Amino acid sequence: MIVENSRLIDLLSEEQKTDLSSLEKQFAHHLEYTIGKSKYTIKNEDIYKALGHTVRDFLIDRLNITNERYRKEDPKKIFYFSLEFLMGRTLMNALINLGLYDLVKQMIGGFGFKLEEVLEFEMDAGLGNGGLGRLAACFLDSMATLNIPGFGYGIRYDYGIFNQIIANGAQVEMPDHWDADGVPYEVIRPDVTYSVGFFGYTETKVSGKGKLQHYWIPDETVLASAHDCPIPGFNTSTVNYLRLWTAKSSEEFNLDYFNHGDYMKAVQDKSISENISKVLYPNDTTEQGKLLRLKQQYFMVCASLQDIIQNHKQTHSGLENLSDKIAIQLNDTHPSIGIAELMRILIDLEDWSWEKAWDLTIRIFSYTNHTVLPEALETWKVSLIEKLLPRHLEIIYEINHRFLESIRSSGKLSDFEIGEVSIIAEGAEKRIRMANLAVVGSNKVNGVAALHSDLITKTIFRSFYKIFPEKFNNKTNGITPRRWLIQSNPGLSELICKKIGGSFATDLSRLRDLEKFVDDADFRNDWANVKQANKDNLAKLIKSDTGIVIDPASMIDVQVKRFHEYKRQLLNVLRVIALYRRIKENPNLQITSRTVIFGGKAAPGYYMAKLIIKLINNVAWMVNHDKDVDGRLKVVFLPNYRVSLAERIIPGTNLSEQISTAGTEASGTSNMKFMLNGALTIGTLDGANVEMLEEVGEENIYIFGLKTEEVFALKEKGYDPGDYIRKNEELHRVLLMIRENYFSMNEPGVFSPIYDSLFYTDSYLLAADFTAYDEMQRKIAQDFRNQDVWTKKAILNVARAGKFSTDRTIREYAEDIWKVPLLPMMEPKTKYKLA
User: Fold this and answer.
1) Residue 30 known to be catalytic
2) pTM of the model
3) Catalytic option among 77, 293, 524, 567
4) Active-site pick, 30, 673, 800, 808
5) For a FRET experiment, which of 205, 207, 286, 522 has its CA 20 to 30 Å from that of 570?
6) Could you confirm whether 370 is annotated as catalytic?
7) pLDDT digits (tens, 9 = 90+) for 664-701
8) Which residues carry this modification: N6-(pyridoxal phosphate)lysine (predicted)?
9) By C-alpha distance, which of 356, 313, 361 is closest to 336?
10) All domains of the chain, ordered by start, with CATH?
11) For this structure, is 733 an active site residue?
């Protein structure tokens, strides 16, 4: 049960309780007529599909009521533009938010099945890479829960983030056809279709009024067709939607080619058009890959803006009040071509003046930045945009010209600084800086943690900050407690609920009430039992997925996230090797038993990240098969890390690794998920770790390593990692083990690039932070031996996690950026009847 005894909220109304028989009839109808099954052939998978269609009926009813309310009240609407939405599994989340979980569990049990097993048949909708896409998903949940008319726009990729398998220790990418068996809760909208143009040329004519008029004549047209994923709020009848576009050819295959026997040519154009929505992040190491990625970006914003404008015109006479009725949030730079597209619509199609169009555009768009790394800022070759979007290039040049003229006349910047803020990067091959376009074309620019927001005004956007200090603000990221506590950790949710009631589900700050129970021995014992049950479940998962048997009583030490050198999974495994060496040198060494778990995917073209994954797996094999270790240390790489796997790992974790080089992580959100589930954190003062320290207190978090300013100072002075390595004999020996093929006897030299990178470059200062990291890990091992004190710290981490809810984040966006009020909680005027 998600809720027992003292409930989180009265998830089941009296009317819903009496609707069990009606729900059963609706479910049985879908099982027989939608799925086509009789009672003699039913399997878990059939139950899942029928349940999905039943819940879909419920969602559509509330969605229609919500849309009718919006039509009548005409509130300002928020549109979240993102090329990534890492939704994970949807059905269980919908059941919880709709208040149907208990009722459905009872109903499914009546059919002789277990709901927990049925829900396992849902595939993760992995339409994103990591934190950026998961944040977008959490934001949609919070907007619906807060009754904000907020909608997501993205692409319905046929293949999401790849499935990862490990072969000979190395990552191998396999296609992720996440919707192969259909998506029962999805609402297909064939009537919502728009044309999107590419390539072609532009023409300029003088109109009858003597005005210069621009025309874009595309050579290629693709259709964007809408698929909606309903997003129910928690404890409210509001249901918003995520609208995802899929690409369709504007024409079917060429029958003339077909009739003449050229079958491949007959469907070639159709296939090329529909490639746009095939794969999340096509490999952009080739020109064709870059072209496809840019196509995806424009495809999404073009269709979305057409949809927004058409819907607006249905209830308003024109676009003059558009900025009063909509706001668009750009999730990173990927959708920033939308700024040029809206200008094209207003100038070329609506016949507005430049000044009027630009004023409206700036008031509509806002931009969220997700990186402090200059190399991560997106740029495109001018020649590529000129080829694919010729009219948009003209508009971007005009935006840049007018912007730079105004800056020159203001005298605020030097010539060098003017070059920094220019949207066009000069050089042997000119490039469009999409981040600069996003800053210039938005009314607000925000970072995603206090440290990050401060850093961008001092580094990548320092010259912009001189011009527009009022544009920049901070919106610290969060997570939705509905998925990351109530859904993923029902045992802890129920324990908390018994003590403080269920209001924390929509007001996470209420968790502070737990502090009064930290000295209650019975409560601490119950807390420890919940944690141990979650660790036991994790141990079963590890054995099932990898065959590795771990000790559930050991410290579960976890680093799960996208693989990147700045996130420093390599620092973690270097320390694992050091610990392994200590055991080998002293087989009788008494240490705190530890299970170190890694998980995450490396981009297919990211050689070094993939090599680190292989090193981790090779080290794991060596450690786990060494009898000298005797179970005191286990290393596990859980393959194919995804949302549903995170939901099972995080509740069973004791120690969360958040060890990026200070000044490189924008925020992080896994750090918040672990904190909310009672894990303690070892981390640097980077991203949101800074604010976590402020909330929880230095005695309840393990902070180590160089601070951001120290990192910058060390690099400016001239950092030589060899100096640090030579001074630390243990680190030096660890690196020699890697260089001398201790973990790669059958593949000599395979890890030499790791040794060379650390000894001669070490861009992310692992050598400089290794000693501090190792010392802090020794302290953690000592602290873990006193389980009662450890549990107290865990309780305080959860009690002080209230700030890190996306409900708080979205309230700040609504107040400071979007200028939109929260609507009162909505109850439908007509109750949904299931039969």
Assistant:
1) no
2) 0.94
3) 567
4) 673
5) 286
6) yes
7) 999 999 999 999 999 999 999 999 999 999 999 999 99
8) 673
9) 361
10) 481-813 (3.40.50.2000)
11) no
